[in-house]
Design goal:
The chain is an alpha+beta fold and about 150 residues long. The protein has a three-stranded antiparallel beta sheet, covered by helices on one side. The termini are far apart. The radius of gyration is 15 Å and the shape is globular. It has one domain: Sufe protein. Chain: A. One of its GO terms (molecular function) is iron ion binding. One of its GO terms (biological process) is iron-sulfur cluster assembly. This is Nitrogen fixation protein NifU. Pfam families: NifU_N.
């Protein structure tokens, strides 16, 4: 697939998650809630995680911001559901590596739609947009383990 076709496909995936976010809303019952924002561009995310026995049973988010920030949150909540806390944190580290322009071994975890965000690494000011929800997830995992 040519670079232009791949770029177009990735843009479509990002816009699909932005216009039709997965897991947007609020969780019922007991859960961890994390509010984070990116003051440089105004992105704001509230992430809610239901973690039971070391597994992310459910994840939802709400917020406002750019297409990169909100599509990343949508993709992240999809990716971590059903994963162990350790797997979710490892995915976050791989995503961070990808945002820094590093090659990510697809054998470790399939990042599926998330790979559409790899082009963000070319725009340093947008990396914080893409990583906001992932950082919120890491904080939520830490808070959950402390409780």
């Amino acid at each position: 697939m040519s670079f232009n076709n791949l770029d177009t496909l990735y843009r479509q995936v990002i816009m699909d998650h932005y216009k039709n976010p997965r897991n947007k809303g609020a969780l019922d019952g007991e859960h961890v809630a994390i509010d984070m924002n990116n003051p440089t561009c105004g992105d704001r995310i509230q992430l809610q995680l239901k973690i039971e026995d070391g597994v992310v049973e459910d994840a939802k988010f709400d917020g406002e911001g750019c297409s990169i920030s909100l599509s990343s949150a949508s993709m992240m909540t999809q990716a971590i559901k059903g994963k162990t806390v350790e797997e979710a944190v490892e995915m976050s580290k791989l995503f961070s590596d990808m945002m820094q322009g590093e090659e990510v071994d697809p054998e470790k975890f399939s990042l599926e739609d998330i790979e559409a965000l790899q082009g963000v690494s070319q725009f340093p000011a947008r990396i914080k947009c893409a990583t906001l929800s992932w950082k919120a997830m890491e904080q939520g995992v830490d808070e959950s383990e402390e409780a």
